[in-house]
Amino acid sequence: MKEIKPAIEKQASVMIEAPKFEIAKVTIVGDTKLVQHKFSQKARQQIMDKQSLGSVSNKGKKKEPRNFDELYKGAMYISTEGWHGIPAISFRKAMVSACRVCGYQMTKGKLALFCEPDGFDSEGTPLVKITKGEPHRHDGYGRIADGGIDINVRPMWDEGWEAVVRIRYDADMFSQTDVVNLLARSGMQVGIGEGRPDSKESCGCGWGTFRIK
């Protein structure tokens, strides 16, 4: 009987290095006003109720009066611990967008830059805590689809607001200096929140810019 020899297993060589992530902790200061517009749970529920009724949703329905103070509070991002915050994704998006002015691929920036949250709101949104500054109500206006004017009520923080941002980054792709400089560029050229310079819908209102403290 012919002897059957066992197959020899070949060891595969691994060329990919283990990920090496580090964290840069940076305090930022608002150069301009910070304005927020959270899509509140109440507003989402109203849209769901309307869509669930289909074409008869507005038939014979009386328009409810608007509670502007309620709209103001509903547009804030508040953590489960009670402090005001900024969505962590805002800083990640701003830094990825700022890659364009540095000659760095945005697709690579997406894989290398992350913002660590300080907490979460009741809906699970990761937030960075606003460590200095208090909000006040800002009443603006905008055009709606039928050409009419709508009043927009938003929370606004005046210049000088502060936050401590923790950026987790791929140290094989960025140095700590790269990360701090990119965050500085995102603060000066991109911005965060409503009316920021890099707004997709307009050139912004000059809001949401910041600098490294």
What do you see in this structure?
By secondary structure, the protein is of the alpha+beta class. The protein has a single domain (21-51, 87-212), classed as Alpha-Beta Plaits (2-Layer Sandwich), CATH 3.30.70. It is built from five helices and ten strands. Strands 1, 3, 4, 5, 6, 9 and 10 form a seven-stranded antiparallel sheet that branches. A hairpin with a 5-residue loop joins β7 and β8 (149-157). α3 (88-98) crosses α5 (176-190). The protein is elongated. The model has no long low-confidence stretch (mean pLDDT 88).
Structural class: alpha+beta
Q: Give me the CATH architecture, please.
A: 2-Layer Sandwich
Tally of alpha and pi helices: 5
CATH topology, anyone? Answer: Alpha-Beta Plaits
Largest sheet: 7 strands, antiparallel
Q: What is the terminal-to-terminal distance?
A: 81 Å
- Taking all residues together, what is the mean pLDDT? 88
Number of domains: 1
- How many β-strands, per DSSP? 10
- Cα-atom radius of gyration: 24 Å
Beta-strand residue fraction: 25-35%
Topology order in helix (H) and strand (E) letters: EEHHEHHEEEEEEHE
Shape descriptor = elongated
Helix content: 10-25%
